[in-house]
């Protein structure tokens, strides 16, 4: 499987697992745990969660899924912007670690830009990093101006990622944010890579997938992962869909397919505000 590197850490596969809305009773809890464990079996290491998801219930479920195999997982969690003061970050991190049942996170992100001065949040991330409660830190939903602000902070160049909304129907970041991240050699995590399932209901898109012998989910994921330095974190509560999504990595996309997708979902020709879900 192709891999990607965050900060100073080991390389991880470019496909990870999202966990928004798990642990909330929408699906069978044992199925949700089984999906994460099956993913780890297949070598998918990155599990993305947040203190926000289900008020901590997602982190608790992830903790249950990785019990006894912590080292196989690369755990990513996020702090609310309103918890992003120095003391707030430390306390939020402690709560997340307790729910996850571990003594460290691999990557800890600021969930979206807020009103606490960034330098204060970064100082807290560094404090946690020095004590090995987190291996690396990053941000999420940061537009180009926000990223420049991060890099201008003391220690800001250590920012290991920006997790953003990116898929075929949300190509805005291609105009400015993705080139900027590339220039700074900072990898991007693409969230909602199949637009929370909505992309799969586009009949013209499904026709392209059929024509190349892929499922719509596989085509959507293969497109997001067509270039290096990107990781996608689709969420599913079905083991069969997880296996289907993993197989997306086996399909390189030809120029003709990319051209057809460009017709259906044109690349941006001017700056667009960064969208978030
Ligand atoms: P996704 O684009 O991953 O889509 C998830 C939806 O697609 C679910 O309804 C799932 O259904 C369905 N699905 C997944 N695989 C398949 C498949 N092969 N065939 C058909 N349907 C499929 O959306 P998310 O919003 O969940 O994004 C992924 C992750 O990104 C989140 O879980 C979260 O970890 C992160 N995220 C981060 C945000 C941020 O602000 N930083 C914001 C939003 C998300 P089912 O589960 O029933 O299989």
Automatic annotation (TrEMBL):
NADP-dependent oxidoreductase domain boundaries: 15-264
GO molecular function terms attached to this record: oxidoreductase activity
Pfam families to which the protein is assigned, alphabetical: Aldo_ket_red (PF00248)
InterPro entries according to UniProt: AKR, Aldo/ket_reductase_CS, NAD(P)_OxRdtase_dom_sf, NADP_OxRdtase_dom
Superkingdom of origin organism: Bacteria
PANTHER family the record matches: ALDEHYDE REDUCTASE, OXIDOREDUCTASE, ALDO/KETO REDUCTASE FAMILY PROTEIN
Protein name: NADP-dependent oxidoreductase domain-containing protein
Organism: Pseudovibrio exalbescens
């Amino acid at each position: 499987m192709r891999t990607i590197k965050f900060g100073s850490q080991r390389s991880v596969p470019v496909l990870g697992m999202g966990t928004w809305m798990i642990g909330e009773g929408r699906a069978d809890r044992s199925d949700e745990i089984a999906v994460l464990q099956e993913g780890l079996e297949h070598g998918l290491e990155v599990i993305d969660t947040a203190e926000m998801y289900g008020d901590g219930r997602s982190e608790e479920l992830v903790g249950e899924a990785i019990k006894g195999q912590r080292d196989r997982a690369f755990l990513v969690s996020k702090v609310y912007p309103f918890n992003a003061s120095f003391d707030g970050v430390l306390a939020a991190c402690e709560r997340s670690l307790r729910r996850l049942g571990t003594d460290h996170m691999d990557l800890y992100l600021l969930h979206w830009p807020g009103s606490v001065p960034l330098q204060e949040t970064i100082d807290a991330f560094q404090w946690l990093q020095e004590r090995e409660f987190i291996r690396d830190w990053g941000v999420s939903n940061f537009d180009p101006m926000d990223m420049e602000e991060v890099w201008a902070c003391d220690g800001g160049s250590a920012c290991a990622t920006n997790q953003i909304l990116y898929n075929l129907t949300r190509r805005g970041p291609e105009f400015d944010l993705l080139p900027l991240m590339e220039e700074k050699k900072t990898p991007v995590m693409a969230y909602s890579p199949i637009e929370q399932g909505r992309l799969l209901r586009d009949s013209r898109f499904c026709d392209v997938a059929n024509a190349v012998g892929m499922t719509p989910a596989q085509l959507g994921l293969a497109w997001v992962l067509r270039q290096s330095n990107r990781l996608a974190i689709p969420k599913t509560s079905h083991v069969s869909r997880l296996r289907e999504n993993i197989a997306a990595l086996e399909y390189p996309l030809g120029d003709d397919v990319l051209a057809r997708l460009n017709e259906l979902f044109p690349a941006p020709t001017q700056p667009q505000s960064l969208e978030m879900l």
